[in-house]
Structures are given as C-alpha cells and as structure tokens.
Amino acid sequence: MKTIHERITGRTVNVNGCWIFQGAKTSRGYGSIRIDGASRSTHVVMYELHIGTIPDGMEIDHRCRVRACCNPAHLEAVTPLVNWERGESPSRLNALKTHCTVGHALDDSRRCVTCQRDRNRTHMRKGRENRGYEFKLNDGQAAEVRALHAAGGMTQRELAHQFGVSPTLVSLIVNGKRHAA
C-alpha cells in the first residue's frame, strides 16, 4: 500500500519548481485527496508531512502563487491577513487602488467623490426630464396659474401638467408662498 506522500507525489508534475498536483482539484484550483474518507487539500497535507502541524490561527500560503502546487518548499504558515495581502484576489487588487477608473483620487472610504457627485447630478437631471418639469414660471405665468385655480376650472395637478412644472410648485404659487419660480 502506498503512503500518503507517495499518493500525492505520484500525481505531480514538476513545472518550474512547482509540484503541480494532477489529481482531483477543488473548484478554486487546490489539489484534493481523500484520506480516511475525508477530502484534504494536498498542500496542507504536504506541509504537515514535511514541516509539521499548522499553528493555531494560521493558514498555508503558496509563496509561488500556484494553488495546485504542493511543493513543501513553496508553502508557508501565515496569518489570514498576510495570505490575503500576498494574494491576487479581486478584493486585494481593489484594495491597492488609489484612483478610480477615470483617474480621480479615492477618499478614505475608497470612493470617488467626484464620480459620485457626477452620478448624483445626472440622476437628478434625468429625474427632472422624466417628469417633464420646467421648474420655471415668470410672474405673468404665476398670475395665470392663480387665476385659473381661482376660477375653479382646473386642479393643481392639471395646472402643473399644462405649465410643465411640478404640482408642488403650483401649490406654493396658489397658496401665496411663491410668486414665481
């Protein structure tokens, strides 16, 4: 019967010093082997066989950055933070960014204030356009709104639609809180 070491190394290929495991792999690309009915990561098993137990609070980092590698010389026990800092995950790469895709500096919260301001302005402008409000009435138009409302023939909503302004503005004009917009 083969030893665990022989089972793993018998399925590896040496590529630039990395022992690339050719057997089963996890969905994330790590080598995987069944030992006593349980799946184990090949790099963890090789670390334990050649170096020793993994200290509490530590995990195994591939210094070569190749997940399928199980060469003990390429493995090191590190804290999760150190492993993350050395990695190339999208979250790590984003953490290194100092500027947005347009080139503006990011603030302490890792947001681009300039781009956010531009998005807000565009959103507000589109909101106004979608409602079709002009937001401007001269004194003569405001007087006409008051007269039409006083005559009782039109609702404030109908007046707003006719003059291309918001119902709120018509209400302010009708109630004497605004003379014109």
Largest sheet: 2 strands, antiparallel
Gross morphology is rod-shaped
Amount of helix: 40-55%
Order of adjacent strands in the largest pleated sheet: 1-2
Under the CATH scheme, the architecture of the largest domain is: Alpha-Beta Complex
Kindly identify the CATH topology of the largest domain. Homing Intron 3 (I-Ppo) Encoded Endonuclease, Chain A
What's the helix count? 8
Distance between the termini: 90 Å
What does this structure look like?
The protein is α+β, with helices and mostly antiparallel strands and 181 residues long. The chain has 3 domains: 84 residues, Alpha-Beta Complex (Homing Intron 3 (I-Ppo) Encoded Endonuclease, Chain A), CATH 3.90.75; 32 residues; 43 residues, Arc Repressor Mutant, subunit A (Orthogonal Bundle), CATH 1.10.10. It has a two-stranded antiparallel ribbon. It has a two-stranded antiparallel ribbon with strand order 3-4. Strand 3 and strand 4 form a beta hairpin. Helix 7 crosses helix 8.
Please write out the topology:
Elements: H1 4-9, E1 12-15, E2 18-21, E3 32-35, E4 38-41, H2 42-50, E5 59-62, E6 75-78, H3 80-86, H4 90-95, H5 113-131, H6 139-151, H7 156-163, H8 167-174
Features:
Arc Repressor Mutant, subunit A, single chain, 3 domains, 13% strand, alpha+beta, two-stranded antiparallel sheet
Brief sketch in words of this structure:
The chain has helices at 4-9, 42-50, 80-86, 90-95, 113-131, 139-151, 156-163, 167-174, and strands spanning 12-15, 18-21, 32-35, 38-41, 59-62, 75-78. It has 181 residues and is of the alpha+beta class.
